[in-house]
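During the reporting period, our protein records have gained a structure token line. A sample record is set out beneath this paragraph:
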Amino acid sequence: MTVQTEPAVGHAFSRAEIGAFVDEVVVPRAAEFDRLGRIDASIVAEFAARGLWGAVLSVADGGTGAGMTALATVHEEVGRGCSSMRSLLTVHSMALYALDRWGTEAAKSRWKAHMVAGAALGAFCLTEPEAGSDFAALQASARREGDEWVLDGHKLWVTGGQLADVLLVFARTAVGPAAFLVDAAAPGVRRIPVEGITGTRGSQVAEIVFENCRVGSDAIIGPEGMGLAIATGVLDIGRFSVAAGCVGILQACLQASVSYANKRHQGGALLREHQLVQQIIATIATNTRAARLLVWQAAQLKDAGSPDTIMATCIAKQFAATSAVAAANDAVQLHGARGCSDEFPVGRYLRDAKVMEIIEGSTQLQHVLIATDACQNRARVVDVE
């Protein structure tokens, strides 16, 4: 997909500004995106006009952003409006971050300005049919032939894979795993749309097959064999975005539940007057605030360059994702039979939230990482100045 536009000037992306944009442009069409299974090109252009595709990079780095706390606000508010759109932001941000940090100067010259402007969208290709996301079992391969790399492999569950222009691909080389930026229009790249998924149905997921796909020597990202380290850094950005998006789902569940409880009567009283309903709303409100603070802590640690941000992001993602599923489930329950219909968005929130417990590291994986870190570091306290 190509959108000709100039990037917006970097700024702090205030909640009021982004929230108003989401309410005006995203929320009214979120159900349509979910139903049709695709995002309209006009919305991609709207995001580009506001500089949102480049928000993961600071202005100093050639992007449009103003730090990770501002990025969290963007991805939370977009997630509140439409998890499918936020998912596209996530994978694009991951690919752009990788390009900026590890890409060759030739690759940056080719892609960076277009990706910042939203004129070229990125996607992340790691998961495979047999290996899943296990680097030790990675089957996709890349071999040198003269001045080219030749890629072969099969990638699954590629968010945005149907419309992406540039693919961040992980493949095994003679030295070890490596990362490559591949033009999605290159010969040897075949896309297979994935339909009927549970949630984020508008994110245009695809399987992508690489068959004798030839790319230039400048396509490799970082040193050969450094793929695992690059994936770790890129996944940290993805998990951060997902965590922020889950806060958005929590906020949306809270707003929907409060709105319904304020107007629906049951047993001669408004729903909000029933104590069990109050318990549901109080729990969602508390978890929304707690998840937001965890995301902000991870953001501040990222902006400070602290290595503690990796674990802070894992904790934020685990808590926000599980809380979003619980909140959406309660919001559906509060709405009764209407919550199971398309009349209200809470059913979509539940489907989208469940996906968040799986992508960018499942809840169970986060539990392992968090417990291992706690045991190795004797559960020390991490302060944020």
Remarks:
- Confidence is low (pLDDT under 50) at residues 1-9.
